[in-house]
Structure formats: structure tokens, C-alpha cells
Amino acid sequence: MSGQVVTRFAPSPTGFLHIGGARTALFNWLFARGRGGKFLLRIEDTDRERSTPEATAAILQGMEWLGLDHDGEVVSQFEGAARHAEVALQLLAEGKAYKCFATQDEIAAFRDAARAEGKSTLYRSPWRDADAATHPDAPYVIRIKAPQDGETVIRDQVQGDVTIRNDQLDDMILLRSDGTPVYMLAVVVDDHDMGVTHVIRGDDHLNNAARQMMIYEAMGWDVPVWAHIPLIHGADGKKLSKRHGALGAQEYQAMGYPAAGMRNYLARLGWSHGDDEFFTDAQAQEWFDFGGIGKSPARFDTKKLENLCGQHIAVSDDAALLQELEGYLAAAEAPALTESKKDGMSRAMYCLKDRAKTFPELIEKAYFVLADRPLQPDAKAQKNLDIVSRGILKELTPQLQNVSWTRDGLEAVTNSYAEAKEIKFGKMAGPLRAALAGRAVTPSVFDMMLVLGRDETIARLEEAAEFEPEAQDA
Fold it and tell me: Distance of alpha carbon 10 from its chain centroid, rounded?
């Protein structure tokens, strides 16, 4: 198959964007983007009872958060129903499909009898080769004429060649008795009309490929390249489900995982490029191929996800990181940052990114710039504001009034004070952290001073020097 690569992601809008679906979308996106191709999005909304606009919106929002941009307009499968039916009627006119008048009761009776006799329950319609003159005036479905001998070989880029005996394939229904097309027909017609060259999807669809190939071949259409990828399992080796925790892409956004880290982790979930763990989108697009996809189910590991997310936060552009942080706050239904807080976060970002694996951790590190005076030190910080520590703050604060407000200037003053008092800087660090942030774990003392500025720093030190810790129980 030559020409431009075209892939597609085709979710059903019956719920959120499942993390497994997100990985399928990512694999299609990487394959197309890395080859200068097109990545299309189709919403398979033919199940009218279960499909909802809210679910469609959730899928689109999940895709947007993950940064998986698609080409062209979103295609609705339901809106193509007339075209799907047209193909079924064409096959009927060409003698490659037929009208079947068998009732549900007749089919059920056939299968009951077959089970009782220990025979195959694969239904063989008596109407396959019936003379049209014998057709009753009754409801009918349109079935495709499946090949009855030989084999169908699915040449899969991940699973290898999968061979299915044609006598195991039934004459699949194309149009129901009410004239509506079935899902199997709609998928094939849509993929053909959209020019899809590569179908990358979960291996739970592998058996569908043989039945869909019947339609491709009956219509004389090119069969796409198949790549059926293993499903995602939980840490216990069982299929990923609600018992394993979050399932929807937007849930991970609301928990504070950065999109770049999520893309990196999902790419590694069942695909590898040598020993590379951390990589950029550009590298993933360049490297991604079917040869790197394993045949066994991948196991979702939250610790590995967090580790990669931390690495991506550390190397992210400050402005982009702040923008994504705002998206996280909205997804988590948390208060938005004021302009002054955003300004503070922008100035502090350089000393916040290191070792923060999620946005909640980043915000915790940023407490010193987000909190307002008077600070309320937590229990651990209060232990660093005993009478001796408050005395250190009272003596040090005046020495900071006129110092050059640079790292070197601040370090020189504090080191000089420590030497004069014959104490180590560590003895001063705890009280300074408690005074500047009200926390025991913070960015470096000097980073906080530089971000806060002289006036705010001195004001916090003066307040902390007068702080009365809560009485501790004996």
C-alpha cells in the first residue's frame, strides 16, 4: 500500500475517554504524525440509546487535554447511515448478498437443535440461494454471502498472520429488517470512504477483521493494514477496570498529571524503543512503529507514570507549565489563580519544577508564594519556631534590611551570621522555612527570598519572630 498514511480513532460515545482508548488514539496519532500522514476522528454513535452528546464532549475534551489533534472535521457514523445502506444494496444487486426471511424464532430453534445434536450453532440461512420468486411478502434482513470454503488470513502487524477457516464464518447481517445498517458494515464503509490505510485498534477487535474483510473483498476495495494491539491490564494482571482506580483520561487530568507525561507513559505502555523510557513527542513520532509493540497485555503502573510525569514537569517551559496548571485547577474544580498569584507562580516556577511529580505536588511546593500573610505554620513548621529559633530570626532580620538582594548577597549575610553565632546553617534553615512558607519542606530558603522580594521576606520574618507556637500536649 503506497500513498499517504491515514489512521483513525473511532470511539463510541457511551462514556468518558477510557485510558485504553486514549492509548489507541495515541498510537494512531504517533503513527500518522511520524509519517506526515493524517489522523482522523470518527464518533461511532450508531447505538442511539447509549450514545450521548455529553459522552462525545468528554471524548473530545480528553483528546484536547492529551494534545492529540486530529485532521478535518469529526465524523459521525450515524449520519452516514444512508451511505452504509447504499453499499449493502449494491452487494445485494450484485448477488454478493441476499435477503433472509428467517425469523428470530426459527434461528433460535435451529441453534437449540444444533446444540442438542452437538453440532455447530453457526446459522446457515436457507434463503442464501433461494429463487427470488419464492420470497414471501415479509420482513427480511440482508446478509452477505460469506465464502464457505478455504481460509481467511488476517495479516496483522502486531499479532502476525492469523488464519480463520471460512466455514467458521457466518453470512453476516448487513442491514437489519428495519433497514438500518449494522456496526460491522458501517465501520468498513466509513474506513474506506475516509481513506483509512492503517487500522490500529485493540486486539479485542481481531476476530472482527475477518468478517470485515468479507465486505472489503466483496466491494473490491483495498484492505487496510491491520495492527491489533494488546489491551491494558492492572497491576494484578487483570483487564483494567474501575477496581484499579481511575479509568478516564480526564480523571488523570483532574488528579494533576501533565499531558506530556501521560503521553510518554501511554506510549511506553505496550510499545518500546530500545531501553528509552523518557522521550519527547518528536522522538516518539520518529521512533514509533509496529515492530516495537509487544503481543502481551501491558500493565498499568502508577509509580512509573508519576516518575515520567516528574521528568516532564522538570523540563517543561515555565509559561506552558503555568497554563497547564490552570487547566488542572479547572478540571479539579479548584479556585482559579488570581493575577498576582499567577505572577508569583511565574517567578517561582524555576524553583518549583524539580522533583514535583504532579500538579498538586507543585502547588504544595508553591505554598510560600500562594499563601497570604499572616501565615499559619503547620505542625512541623511550628516545631521550628521555638523560642531559640525565634531569637535567631529577630537577630537576622535587621541584617537583611540593606543587603544586596541577590543569592550571593543573601548567602553572605546568613553565612556570616552563622559563623558569628557558631552554628551551622542547618540550624537556621528550619526557622527560615517556617517563617517564609509556614512549612517544613520547601524550595531553598534563598530561592524563596528572591521570589518573595525584600519587603515580603522581612515582613514574614518579623511576623514569625513574634509567633507563639500552640501548646503541645505532654
Answer: 15
**What strand order describes the sheet that includes 75-76?**
6-9, 38-43, 75-76
Measured CA to CA, the distance from residue 446 to residue 427 in angstroms comes to 15
Binning pLDDT at 50, 70 and 90, where does residue 234 land? confident
| Percentage with pLDDT > 70 across the chain | 98
> Going edge to edge, which strands form the sheet with 141-144?
97-100, 141-144, 173-175
What residues are annotated to the active site? 242
The pLDDT score that the predictor gives to residue 474 is: 43
Q: State the pLDDT at residue 149.
A: 93
Using an 8 Å Cβ cutoff, are 172 and 164 in contact?
A: no
Copy the grid coordinates of residue 438: 509556614
Whether pTM > 0.85 for this model: the answer is yes
Has residue 247 got a pLDDT over 90? Answer: no
**Structure confidence by residue, pLDDT tens digits, 352-372:** 999 899 999 999 999 999 999
Which residues, 6 or more positions from 159, have their beta carbon under 8 angstroms from its beta carbon? 203, 206, 228, 295
What does 103-168 look like in DSSP terms, one character per residue?
A: -HHHHHHHHHHHHHTT-------TTTT--GGG--SS--EEEE----SSEEEEEETTTEEEEEEGGG
The 8 Å CB, 24+ separation contacts for 425-428 are: 427/392, 428/392, 428/396
Q: Is the pLDDT at 81 greater than 50, yes or no? A: yes
Residue with cell 470518527: 42
**62: nearest Cα among 29, 16, 128:** 16
Closest by CA position to 149, among listed 168, 124, 167, 172? 167
- Identify whether the C-beta of residue 250 lies closer than 8 Å to the C-beta of residue 229: no
Q: Is 228 helix (H, G, I), strand (E, B) or coil?
A: strand
Q: What is the pLDDT of residues 376-412, one digit of tens each?
A: 999 999 999 999 999 999 999 999 998 999 999 999 9
- How far apart are the C-alpha atoms of 189 and 169, rounded to whole Å? 20
* Gyration radius of the chain over CA positions: 32
Minimal CA–CA distance to 77: which of 185, 186, 151, 179?
186
Residue whose C-alpha cell reads 531553598 in the numeric block: 444
